[in-house]
Amino acid sequence: MCDELTLADEAKLTRRAFAVLGAGGALAAAVPAFATGKKLAESVVTIPTADGTADAFFVHPARGKYPAIIIWPDIGGLRDAFKDMARRLAAAGYAVLAVNHYYRSAPAPVLANFALWRTPEGQAKIRPMVGLVTADAVARDAAAFVAWLDKQAAVNRKRGIGNSGYCMGGPFTVRSAAAVPDRIKAAASFHGAGLVSAADNSPDKLLAKTKAAFLIAIAKNDDARAPTDKDALKAAAKAAGRPAEIEVYGGDHGWCVADSPSYHAAEAERAWARMLVLFGGL
User: Which of 10, 12, 33, 229 has a CB 3.0–4.6 Å from the CB of 196, allowing a cystine?
Assistant: First the structure.
């Protein structure tokens, strides 16, 4: 998994740096301030799925109907960093569902911040949960989340649904678009793991089953490890006839998430801007 491959890259961070991240200092400094002309409504919600009951964070402008967006967090799970992303996206005019993809194991937050994933205790806690989030499980969850969103008063069903994913959540965006092609019309993957493989159900092989437009933003160190993946993704998108913006960014794996040791503010903002362009087409 790409999150594990970056352990060596982040070894340069000191225990003191991790403590600052864990206290929320980096998050508070890194998340750009955003003005909203809309009052937001937010809540923790529960969603029935084929595998149980998922918890999620739902936020949207308090009045009106808006296109829906699903956020798939990284390996650290749903936490404050992703709630802040959801609020910012809602302020831009979307009904946003940030999901706990570990709901089969525990309610969110499983970890309070990304720094805890880098501890032996955090890894021991998370690893068994990761194994339950299979490709088929993601497809089932995507169908459940879409069905739930389509029943919400804040969601404009005349518009398509978008989804964004980070690290291990990156390929979930493609799997979701393939699972619910008539509703999910946009997928944004940021430093996504395992987008290209020899498996029959590899995300690159699923593009033809979707009706979505794609933004695939690749970390520079992930590209260094797998330099042909971007070409395979471009070829797959072309063969599938799907519009896709595929680019290597100047940040390392995790650069888009504010509590990640690899957070890169300028490149994160650039990726955010491109995501808004993608979702603007819903």
Answer: 229
Give the span between the Cα atoms of 148 and 207, in whole angstroms: 24
Contact 56, 99 (CB under 8 A): yes
Q: How far is residue 29's CA from residue 255's CA, in Å, rounded to a whole number?
A: 15
In angstroms, how far is the first alpha carbon of the chain from the final one?
31
Q: What is the pLDDT of residues 96-133, one digit of tens each?
A: 999 999 999 999 999 988 888 888 898 999 999 999 99
- 225 and 196 in contact (C-beta within 8 Å)? no
Q: How many CB atoms lie within 10 A of CB 130?
A: 17
Encode pLDDT of 225-265 as tens digits. 999 999 999 999 999 999 999 999 999 999 999 999 999 99
Q: 258 CB contacts (<8 Å, ≥6 apart)?
A: 26, 27, 30, 31, 81, 84, 268
Parallel, antiparallel or unpaired: strands 184-190 and 161-166: parallel
Residue in the structure block whose two tokens are 């225990």: 15
Other CB atoms within a 10 A radius of the CB of residue 91 amount to 19
In degrees and rounded to multiples of 5, residue 224 shows phi and psi of -65, -35
Which of residues 115 and 78 earns the better pLDDT score? 78
pLDDT at 37: 59
Write out the E strands in the chain. 40-49, 52-61, 68-72, 95-99, 161-166, 184-190, 213-218, 244-248
Q: What is the Cα Rg of the chain in Å?
A: 17
Alpha-carbon distance of 249 to 162, in angstroms, equals: 21
